[in-house]
Amino acid sequence: MKKALALLVAFAITAGTVMAGQITVGFAQLGAESMWRTANTDSIKGEAAKRGINLVFSDAQQKQENQIKAVRSFIAQEVDVIGLPPLVNSGWEPVLREARDAGIPVILADRTVDTSDDSLYVSFIGSNFIQEGENAGNWLVRELMGRYGEVSGEVFELVGTVGAAPAIDRKAGFEKVIANHPHLNIVKSQSGDFTRAKGKEVMEAFIKSPEWGRASRKIIFGHNDDMVLGAIQALEEAGINPGTECILIGVDGIADAFEAIAQGKMHCTVECNPLIGPQFYDMVEALVAGKEIPKIVYSIEGTYDYMCAEVLLPWRRTLY
Ligand code: GZL
Questions:
Q1: Å from CA of 36 to ligand 1 middle
Q2: Cys staple from 157: which of 57, 124, 179, 189, with CB 3.0 to 4.6 Å?
Q3: 103-128 per-position pLDDT tens digit
Q4: How far is CA 72 from the centre of its chain?
Q5: What residue ranges in the chain does DSSP mark as E strands?
Q6: Global pTM?
Q7: What residues of the chain score a pLDDT lower than 50?
Q8: Mutate to test the pocket of ligand 1, among 30, 34, 125 (most ligand atoms within 8 A of CB)
Q9: With a 6 A CB cut-off, is 124 part of the ligand 1 pocket?
Q10: 222 Cα to the center of ligand 1, angstroms
Q11: What is the 8-class DSSP label of residue 118?
């Protein structure tokens, strides 16, 4: 009798974990590779707790196969909505088809997928990465004109994760702008996988390259701030003053980049907003309530440089 009662109590506790009517969301986070990503995770977790949403969260440690496994487990658990920031933009159609056929809507959060069948996901919420690349290019053109009265220089590009939408699109946006300036060219381009450690490694190789020795104006464009901060370490260890001998531009707008700019070691960061939790759960709640949601929801973002980073640093520290 006692055993049966204990089992009954245990079942009640477990079942009680998900209250009746409570929304359950499965979120297959891609990793924890950068400050941007950890701020993004904090926003997704924090907002779920605030709204009393039951969040089933997984970290794929930058492996697509782990994300796919997580999505399959969310389908088996019959969650209400799946959130997916796809590590790379290919290889998603089979598992997205399984989610659709199981009647579970998928919201792409942060990054997009390459597919001709847009019934495979309900909506995308994140940034316009092409615009971010253009913002970086336009800032550089203005900066060169302002400093030298001409637009010329050699760009050393730290590329994000190979195959990832932000890496592909930031490069495309940046190249679209510099294509109008024949004396401003990318002379070296290599992936640092969006991490500080790899960004430092790639910069060490750039410094040893013949292109570095021949460069008249050394410009480093990183697809995220973490790689640029790694590059700064490599430059300083090589006895190069990043602030005076180079121009360094990153993307994300993390507080550490604001600090490096305030210290005169970096020059510009293009914002990419990680704090999409509130907008993401607005979309989840609308979906569960049977409402239509837009196919694309872009974050609002700016560009920050040495004219404003120091005074804005305390504010930025409240976000990261
Ligand atoms: C962009 C996001 C990128 C960040 C990087 O939305 O996917 O991934 O720019 C992060 O810092 O690693």
A1: 6
A2: 189
A3: 999 999 999 999 999 999 999 999 99
A4: 23
A5: 24-29, 54-59, 81-84, 106-110, 123-126, 153-159, 184-191, 218-222, 246-252, 268-271, 296-298, 303-305
A6: 0.89
A7: 9-16
A8: 34
A9: no
A10: 11
A11: G
